[in-house]
Design brief:
The protein is an alpha/beta fold. Among the domains are: 50 residues, Orthogonal Bundle (434 Repressor (Amino-terminal Domain)); 130 residues, Response regulator (Rossmann fold, 3-Layer(aba) Sandwich). The strands form 2 sheets. The chain has a 6-stranded parallel beta sheet with strand order 2-1-3-4-5-11, sandwiched between helices. Strands 7-6-8-9-10-12 form a 6-stranded mixed beta sheet, with helices on both faces.
């Protein structure tokens, strides 16, 4: 049996108009409390409620579809974000079209234009680098397309953005490694000029300064968010006359490359501690000290979807920056190595 809005409202103990406002993304704009909105969404999910999208589209001239543009879905970080966006959007009666750019500026511009033309009611974008990408995003905003950016800050684009405090997290990773006894740290960073990578490198430097540790020449290497960069950077660090006793990686792909290189060095690199960003589900089994900055991927996706739907529904507040905290987890092998 198909559930109705009235049944959702009854289950959530709210009025039908309140349930409607929550499920159409107008909770914040209409000053509905977070607890009430959450109760309505849970009731809708439990009852399997699906809004009548066709009827609503005829009334509002909207498609009730959102566009999501990320760099790659093979990366668990963006895959989890995409799943969270879809779950939050679906509960509000929206479908999601997803495009992955592979950090290719031309592909991102093409996808942005395609999603605008389809049309989607609004876009969530992890911005790439380059002036053309910046121009494409500014054109979307100028055309009145609701836009939310995630993971990367672009000051010149006036829109809502959902970010994580990467700088603080990187400084905390350094503090954790220093607390483990590391005194010579290196960092395999991300692309120069990319906000997230720049923030993490700045946090790494800040953490070294706070711990009273130097940054020797050659112990910071920028490059793409790739396994190959992690492998190459780690090899260069370990071949230095004074190799590091701890390596920080700017994301999970780079960390995988660092770990691959460490594994090829055998016992000579067994004591090198590592740290990195994003979920590392195998961390407890690595047999070496590791600190992980776990970004709240699910919260990023859901927060971005809610913010976008609120804009689509008419929220006129100034652009918002929603900064989410990053949890630091530490894993150390047992003293006997088992």
């Amino acid at each position: 049996m198909v559930s109705t809005l009235r049944q959702v409202a009854r289950a959530a103990r709210v009025s039908v108009p309140t349930a409607s406002r929550v499920l159409s993304g107008r909770a914040e704009a209409d000053r509905i409390s977070a607890a009430t909105a959450d109760r309505v969404r849970r009731a809708a999910a439990r009852l399997g409620y699906r809004p009548n999208v066709m009827a609503r589209s005829l009334r509002t001239r909207r498609t009730h579809s959102l566009g999501l543009v990320v760099t790659e879905l093979a990366n668990p970080f963006f895959a989890t974000i995409a799943g969270a966006v879809e779950a939050e959007a679906s509960a509000a009666g929206y479908t999601v079209m997803v495009a992955a750019t592979g950090e290719d500026a031309d592909r991102q511009i093409a996808y942005l234009r395609e999603l605008q033309a389809r049309p989607a009611d609004g876009l969530i974008v992890a911005p790439g680098q380059g002036g053309e990408v910046l121009g494409a995003l500014q054109s979307l905003v100028a055309a009145g397309v609701p836009l939310v950016t995630i993971d990367r800050r672009i000051e010149e684009v006036r829109c809502d953005r959902v970010l994580c405090d990467s700088r603080r997290a990187a400084a905390e990773l350094v503090a954790v490694l220093a607390g483990m006894g590391c005194r010579r740290l290196a960092m395999a960073s991300g692309p120069d000029g990319l906000w997230t990578a720049d923030q993490r490198l700045a946090g790494f430097r800040q953490g070294l300064a706070t711990a009273g540790l130097p940054l020797p020449a050659g112990m910071a290497a920028a490059g793409p968010f790739s396994v190959e960069h992690g492998r190459t950077a780690a090899a260069a660090f370990l071949d230095a006359p004074e190799p590091p006793d701890g390596i920080v990686a700017a994301n999970n792909r780079i960390l995988a490359g660092v770990l691959e290189e460490l594994s090829t060095r055998g016992q000579a690199a067994a004591g090198v501690a590592v740290a990195g960003f994003d979920g590392v589900p195998y961390a407890p089994f690595l047999g070496r000290p590791i600190a992980v900055a776990e970004q709240p991927e699910d919260q990023i996706g859901r927060t971005a979807a809610r913010a976008l739907i609120e804009r689509i529904q008419g929220l006129k507040d100034p652009p918002r920056e929603l900064m989410l905290p990053i949890a630091i987890k530490t894993f150390r092998p047992p003293p006997d190595g088992r």
